[in-house]
Amino acid sequence: MNAFNTPKMIGVIGTKFNPQMDALIVLDDFEGMEKGVANLFNLRLNSKFQQLFLIPPPSFEMAHKLGFTSRSLSAVLLAPSLINLTNQG
């Protein structure tokens, strides 16, 4: 069963989720219209999840360029607090 498949479940998860904490959410089967993509759309309905950054799985082409023969279909949602940008200058 899909954990985020109803507005009620997203509401329950949203009550326990603090967007200020260091959150990392993994969405499996993130391809086409699979459950991972549907979960993202459902999570984004709740404003607490709208500020998380999405890192989609690599394309087949990117995985091949990096020397991998297969790839993950998992996407990651990250809290902004987990991302640091530094000046290259």
**Outline type:** flat
Largest sheet: 3 strands, antiparallel
Mean of residue pLDDT? 84
Question: Could you name the ranges where pLDDT drops below 50 across 5 or more consecutive residues?
Answer: none
Strand order of the largest sheet: 1-3-2
Helix content: 25-40%
What structural class do the secondary elements suggest? Answer: alpha+beta
Task: Report what the structure shows.
- This protein is of the alpha+beta class.
- The chain has a domain at 35-83.
- 29% of the residues lie in helices and 12% in strands.
- It contains three helices and three strands.
- It is flat and about 40 Å long.
- The N and C termini lie far apart (49 Å).
- The mean pLDDT is 84.
Feature tags:
89 residues; 29% helix; flat; 3-stranded antiparallel β-sheet; alpha+beta
Structure, briefly:
The protein has 89 residues and is of the alpha+beta class. Helices cover 29% and strands 12% of the residues. The protein has a domain of 49 residues.
